[in-house]
TrEMBL record:
Pfam family membership, one: 2-Hacid_dh_C
GO molecular function: NAD binding; oxidoreductase activity, acting on the CH-OH group of donors, NAD or NADP as acceptor
Native source species: Streptomyces griseus subsp. griseus (strain JCM 4626 / CBS 651.72 / NBRC 13350 / KCC S-0626 / ISP 5235)
Keyword annotations of the record: NAD, Oxidoreductase
Domain D-isomer specific 2-hydroxyacid dehydrogenase NAD-binding: 145-324
Domain D-isomer specific 2-hydroxyacid dehydrogenase catalytic, first and last residues per copy: 70-356
Name of the molecule in the record: 2-hydroxyacid-family dehydrogenase
Alphabetized InterPro entries for the sequence: D-2-hydroxyacid_DH, D-isomer_2_OHA_DH_cat_dom, D-isomer_DH_CS, D-isomer_DH_NAD-bd, NAD(P)-bd_dom_sf
Domain of life: Bacteria
Similarity comment text for this entry: Belongs to the D-isomer specific 2-hydroxyacid dehydrogenase family.
SUPFAM superfamilies, A to Z: Formate/glycerate dehydrogenase catalytic domain-like, NAD(P)-binding Rossmann-fold domains
CDD domains the UniProt entry points to: 2-Hacid_dh_10
Length: 365
């Protein structure tokens, strides 16, 4: 194992920081946030280098062994020359990159989970990896509620028809009209930072909120005025269901054909979390026979979706291209959270969001 670098270097050894941004969390935002953080302590600012990755103008995807990354290993290795710290959202930190960057000590990832980093490789090479939980929680929560309202009230259908020159006054007919969040039972699958904000907004509308999350503290959920239930119970009781769980091997296709069959006839389903949570195969049939009243998706099993995507012709579907977290506030918040981690690291303090705590075992910190 290489020498442990996370805690054995002195502050003066950190001379260069790479801001590996993209066209959302821009290098300039990262640099400004880190500079503000360090200036508060009176530290001399280190040298900065910048790299701009092509996302979102080019979709992210797998790079070597990591997923949801942007850019190339070669470009990142070149940009990392002499850097001790890198702040990034999408750069592909693979075994090859770590092996080629012996001076690297910290990778601060400005997203909710470091899925663009090979954590095992980082640990082997003595590099700490931090992340930015909650950076887009407000944006994602607001977006999810917006999708619920649009699906329930058929906003996109009415808008599309209006633009075609069709006045859909018939949408006021009883059988065509939508429902209200006030008085509805809404089920949240996953009750983390995003789910909690969604619940607060829904309760302000007057909805009854259920939550299914085996990792959430039951007393805390109840203190929010939300009823904690098992997943099958939630699905059978909710007229609106919104997914907010993380995608893991345990949660892949968590909502499958059997569980979709538990939904009340005409229920609304929203997924703005991760496409893999939902089995897409049964959805076209459920929409066409009315068992599923409406479907709102911001995430998909394949991104971008193929031209022959089965749901393209299904009725009552709202689609957006993975935009739930896309606010300027999210970009600034992401940069600020990671900058705070860089500041803690340079001051020799404990990181608040260390993704690979085993890296400390070699020398403690």
């Amino acid at each position: 194992m290489p020498p442990h670098r996370l805690s054995s270097q002195k502050e003066s050894d950190v001379m260069r920081i790479l801001a590996a941004g993209d066209h959302f969390v821009r290098p300039a935002l990262i640099r400004a946030a880190v500079s503000r953080e360090l200036s508060r302590t009176g530290r001399e600012l280190p040298e900065f280098a910048e790299l701009t990755l092509p996302w979102p103008h080019e979709p992210f995807g797998p790079v070597a062994e990591v997923r949801e990354a942007s850019g190339t290993e070669d470009g990142l290795v070149e940009a990392l020359a002499g850097a001790s710290v890198c702040v990034t959202q999408m750069a592909p930190f693979t075994e090859r990159v770590f092996a080629a960057s012996p001076g690297l000590r910290l990778v601060a990832v400005s997203r909710g989970g470091p899925v663009n980093v090979d954590l095992a490789a980082a640990t082997r090479h003595g590099v700490g990896v931090s992340f930015a939980p909650g950076r887009n929680a407000q944006a994602a929560a607001e977006f999810a509620v917006g999708l619920m309202l649009a699906a329930m009230r058929r906003v996109t259908v009415a808008d599309a028809e209006f633009r075609r020159g069709v006045w859909r006054g018939d949408l006021y007919a009883y059988e065509e009209s939508g429902g209200e969040l006030g008085g509805a039972t809404v089920g949240l699958v996953g009750y983390g930072a995003i789910g909690r904000i969604v619940a607060r907004v829904l309760r302000a509308f007057g909805a009854r909120v259920l939550a299914a999350d085996p990792y959430a503290d039951r007393a805390a959920v109840e203190a929010d005025g939300v009823e904690p239930v098992e997943l099958d119970d939630l699905l059978s009781r909710s007229s609106v269901v919104s997914l907010h769980a993380r995608l893991t091997e345990e949660t892949r296709h968590l909502i499958d054909a059997r569980r979709l069959g538990l939904l009340p006839h005409g229920a609304v389903l929203v997924n703005s979390a991760r496409g893999g949570l939902l089995d897409h195969a049964p959805l076209p049939g459920l929409l066409r026979d009315g068992a599923l009243g409406a479907l709102a998706l911001d995430v998909y099993d394949i991104e971008p979706v193929p031209a022959d995507w089965a749901l393209r012709d299904a009725p009552n579907v709202i689609t957006t291209p993975h935009l739930a977290g896309a606010t300027r506030q999210t970009a600034h918040r992401a940069a600020a959270i990671t900058a705070a981690e860089v500041g803690r690291f340079l001051r020799g303090e404990k990181l608040s969001h260390l993704a690979n705590p085993d890296v400390l075992a070699a020398g403690g910190a």
